[in-house]
User: Fold these one by one.
Assistant:
Number 1:
Amino acid sequence: MHVAVVVPTYQEAGNIADVCRRVRDVLPDARIVVVDDDSPDGTADAARAVGAELGDVEVVERHGERGLGGAYRLGFRRAIDAGADVVVQMDADGSHDAGDLPVLVAIVAHGADLVIGSRYVPGGRTVDWPRRRQALSRWGNRYAAGVLGLAVNDATAGYRAYSTDALERTGFEQVRADGYGFQVEMTHRLVRAEGKIVEFPITFRERTVGRSKLSRGIVNEAFGLVLRLWVADRRGRRERRRRGM
Ligand SMILES: Nc1nc2c(ncn2[C@@H]2O[C@H](COP(=O)(O)OP(=O)(O)O)[C@@H](O)[C@H]2O)c(=O)[nH]1
Ligand SMILES: [Mg+2]
């Protein structure tokens, strides 16, 4: 079972070495794919330096482009091309505990299409998040799941593992959404495809180094995206009814 861990980075020079070391400690055979968007703080160089020490760290640099969605699309493709059976996505800032990796991977190995490291199932939590941030994430998730009927508690989560087969079936390269919207749209695609989704409780810790890059604009984009997906679902249902399916 080949595992690749895709880590998108923007301005994470102070974090990237630690996260790569932690991943290597728990999954000695995993490939690490860092996707950096030309961070001015030298994140890519820091990633290459730690890669030289650890081995099997691929540093992919995008120039003149920003955005989490694009970084994931490219990182996933690289991971699949390198032969991964399981593709994990993980933040660089220490919010996601590498200690959870073995169980996330094991759940996929046992047949799940997607396992979400979830803050909003019993046992899951967020630590050191300001109340406002917590409320926004909690209600954003209720809104997305409620409107789209997702039956997933943490559709915006960025700590996940996909089976490569399921990932290919989602057509992830067609997803245009960015930021939290990317996570929601990927979840929506898998739910519609009747994929087997498992939520595993995690503790999400606010970063201690650097700062968040996900802005108000990204949040608003995700709200609009949910409505667009809802409209598309309705259209699809009507179309199928008309064709008598
Ligand atoms: N490649 C790339 N990575 C990004 C971008 N924006 C955020 N990231 C990375 O995505 C992860 C999550 O972003 P972060 O700012 O911590 O979001 P938050 O945890 O929701 O506050 C981190 O590893 C970031 O470095 C981007 O535009 N491009
Ligand atoms: Mg973060």
Note: The first helix runs from residue 16 to 26.
Number 2:
Amino acid sequence: MLPSIVKAILFLPWCLALPVPPGTDLKGWDFVKDYFHHFFLTKKELPLLTEGEQIRFLQQFFSLNVTGLLDKQTLDMLRRPRCGVPDVTDYSISPGRPRWNKLTLTYSIINYPFGMKPSTVEDIIYDAVSTWGNVTPLIFQQVKGQDADIKISFWDFEHGDDWPFDGPGGVLAHAFLPSSETPGVVHFDKGEHWSTSYRGINLFLVATHELGHSLGLYHSGNQNSIMYPTYDYQDPRTFQLSVDDIRRIQQLYGRKMFI
Ligand SMILES: [Zn+2]
Ligand SMILES: [Zn+2]
């Protein structure tokens, strides 16, 4: 079971006014505490860390200037849409070095988001799995129904796994690692405006990130990595995995062999 600490909904106060005076805006500080509680599940959690220590911890993880102050760069980062998987945890959500012990994986698209043709979703997911398959020996095969290694689906709010979604913005998706109780499960927030472009939330970019989790990757603090926790648009037509992503996925599955 996942620890109960991860079971609450992330609430993003979009109305928060900027700039925020460091350490004096309780709404801003409450926001940081909430964020820290949800995504940095370390045993050093509140109240052991001071406000400044928590902010420094967040700034270090996100590769920001480490000021210890609740400044604009930090709040802007914490407000960005993101993945629902915790960034750092001391709890045993997925102990060890999770990976699949086979190189051919099936995947299934259980349902579809609003406003996007099923064939478009299938093309996007194919491109996303191929991104990982192009740099490893992994082979992906699409199948129908629930009997697949990787099961992709779209849900609103509470959907039965204790990780409820929150509508547009905030948490976009989450996925379970190979060593979890539900390996290969990938859930997207149906409340997002999923798109093939820069509008709304680009499905290819989020799918590539979530499939990284499905294959065994944790979040990266490297801003060039697709496994960075927050969403940042880049053109899918020119997208490439970063050196960091390729190195980490090849540590799990090896390099692609060209015959
Ligand atoms: Zn993630
Ligand atoms: Zn879920």
Note: Residues 118-133 form the longest helix (16 residues).
